[in-house]
Design goal:
Strand content: 5-15%
Order of helices and strands: HHHHEHHEEHEEHHEE
Distance between the termini: 60 Å
Largest sheet: 5 strands, mixed
Number of strands: 7
Helix content: 55-70%
Length: 344
């Protein structure tokens, strides 16, 4: 039964009960019939007027309830972009405000869900694509070695090195996917420890000694010797440093210079890597830290990159309440940097 019907029924019953009791009272008072009729008509008129006023007052309430019911029906059908008018008595306004807030929250959550589904589809597509190349390479080289068609020792050694290199790419890709999954699901908890940033920098650079020698790149390192211990998660920040240096080396031509800095700026420590590569186009700098984004798409895929490295770095730095960015004129060289607060 509808609310309006219930209100009409309740008012009618109340009016009838009042008329019955008043009529009985009038009869018991030995009032003349004409006066009883007159008083009954007056009572009936007052009741009808009260009935009309009651309906007029409750009409906006019923209108608001019907509007909420209609918009709730839209939400049930999957349309979450709904709003109701915040009008009427204070309680109805609060109810309408809460309804609008709820619809906004649900719409936001539904948008996040769709974005998550889109991300999963992109993740599967990109990872499948990036796995195919090294797996095909490993398969072909292993098949050649297994068939004993490679007799030259130098060629066999080169084949083994290629297999090792492709295996490392696969391992790095799997590690990136697992780490990004942890960050995305907020499973990586904040557990800092006071760490000397200079020692962390030295340990990171040592990983690239062979590649630096192969490309004959001059590395210039500058850091403040008086840097205090920084509250950070060493493994994760080393992961960010590794990613930035690895990208700089990959995109730097041979016989160029790489500048690495770790300096104190106010209440922050800034780490930066400057290369002499082709730079990052200005219009792409805002997107470079997004998932799967590749500036040099063909070159990154050839290098086995997943497009997750910088996105993972951004998540880690934000977990530390820091900032990360890139500076480049889009033509020659680029500087990737991140800043961490000395106190968190």
């Amino acid at each position: 039964m509808k609310i309006r019907t219930l209100l009409i029924l309740a008012n009618t019953i109340s009016l009838v009960v009042i008329l019955v009791f008043l009529t009985i009272s009038y009869v018991q008072m030995f009032i003349s019939t004409d006066i009883i009729i007159l008083l009954s008509l007056i009572t009936l008129g007052a009741g009808l007027l009260s009935f009309a006023v009651n309906l007029m007052i409750t009409s906006p309430l019923l209108k608001s309830v019907k509007q909420m019911s209609r918009e709730a029906g839209k939400m049930a059908n999957g349309d979450f972009d709904v709003k109701v008018t915040e009008a009427g008595p204070q309680e109805i306004k609060e109810l309408a405000s809460n309804f609008n807030h709820m619809s906004s929250r649900i719409e936001g959550m539904f948008g996040e869900l769709k974005e998550s589904e889109k991300f999963k589809s992109e993740l599967i597509a990109n990872v499948s694509h990036d796995l195919r190349t090294p797996l095909s390479s490993i398969h072909s080289f292993v098949a050649a070695l297994n068939d004993d068609i490679i007799e030259d020792p130098e060629t066999r050694r080169r084949y083994y090195e290629t297999i090792l290199s492709e295996t490392e790419k696969l391992s790095l890709l799997i590690e990136e996917v697992l780490e990004f999954s942890q960050l995305e699901n907020r499973k990586l908890s904040w557990k800092p420890s006071p760490t000397p940033i200079d020692q962390l920098l030295i340990d990171t650079i040592q990983q690239f000694e062979r590649k630096i020698e192969e490309k004959n790149i001059e590395v210039k390192v500058e850091y403040d010797e008086g840097l205090p211990l920084v509250p950070l998660m060493p493994v994760q920040i080393k992961r960010v440093m590794t990613n930035l240096i690895q990208n700089a080396l990959s995109f730097s031509p041979d016989h160029t210079t790489l500048e690495i800095h770790a300096v104190k700026k106010g209440e922050q420590v800034e780490f930066s890597v400057k290369d002499e590569g082709r730079g990052v186009a200005i219009e792409e700098q805002a997107s470079i830290f997004e998932r799967f984004y590749r500036v040099e798409k063909s070159r990154n895929k050839a290098g086995g990159g997943s497009g997750l490295g910088l996105s993972i770095s951004k998540e880690i730095i934000e977990l530390h309440d820091g900032e990360i960015g890139v500076e480049s004129d889009g033509r020659s060289g680029s500087t990737f940097w991140f800043r961490l607060p000395l106190v968190k």
